[in-house]
UniProtKB/TrEMBL annotation:
Coiled coil: none annotated. PANTHER family: N-ACETYLGLUCOSAMINE-INDUCED PROTEIN 1. GO terms for cellular component: cytoplasm. This is N-acetylglucosamine-induced protein 1. It comes from Didymella exigua CBS 183.55.
Length: 219
């Protein structure tokens, strides 16, 4: 059998008896970056530790967050199927995950609970299993600086105040970040990310209303 390193990227992390004859459709338009990640054996991939996660967020280098190779492959298969079935990832998020009949907010940022939904990140990054990755979805916009694509001072304060009120009273260690526009996989629905270190499971069940991430459901 050839060494795993010499395999085409689309065969890596796949049992030999399941190797496809050619590159699957869901991987055919993979970027060079995705090909490099997917072509890395899982055993050679190093999960990010909590101190590393905190440093990435502190220095705003969130481009360093990547999914574990086999998870990125599954994510690509999942989103390919989504677009076929729902037309777009956004349609799936709004109709199935958020179940929002209307995207019209009742008021300004963080004024009404009905305008906010907290769910697990369906396809979390390659991080220590003690770190829980949540996404806070909102019907209202959180202003970005037009030049930098980053949060304005006002929206950063609004998010931080909400995070402190909602999570910091229950979890000792946490970070939050909002993706740069260039890194967002879902552009049409506002959201930001919260990572919690060793949170209480009952708190998670309550705050997410018993949510289960799609990675735990996708075959």
């Amino acid at each position: 059998m050839p060494k795993e390193e010499s395999l085409p990227f689309w065969k890596v992390n796949v049992p030999e008896e399941q190797w496809p004859a050619e590159c699957p459709d869901f991987l055919k338009d993979s970027s060079e970056k995705d090909q490099r990640i997917i072509g890395t054996p899982d055993e050679d991939y190093k999960l990010l530790t909590w101190p590393e996660v905190r440093e990435i967020v502190r220095t705003d280098r969130i481009d360093k967050f990547h999914r574990k190779p086999s998870e990125l492959r599954r994510y690509r298969a999942f989103t390919y199927r989504l677009v076929k079935g729902y037309g777009s990832i956004m349609n799936f998020i709004v109709n199935e995950r958020l179940q929002w009949g209307s995207m019209q907010p009742q008021g300004g940022p963080f004024k009404f609970d009905e305008d906010i939904r907290i769910l697990y990140n369906d396809w979390p990054y390659g991080i220590d299993p003690d770190i829980v990755h949540l996404v806070v979805w909102t019907k209202f916009e959180l202003e970005d600086d037009e030049e930098t694509g980053l949060c304005t001072a006002q929206s950063r304060k609004e998010i931080d105040d909400y995070v402190q009120k909602t999570f910091a009273t229950k979890v000792n260690e946490l970070v939050w970040f909002k993706n740069w526009k260039s890194l967002k996989s879902v552009h049409a629905v506002e959201h930001f990310h919260v990572m919690l270190y060793r949170p209480d499971r009952d708190f998670l069940k309550d705050i997410t209303n018993g949510d289960v991430p799609m990675t735990a459901k996708f075959e």
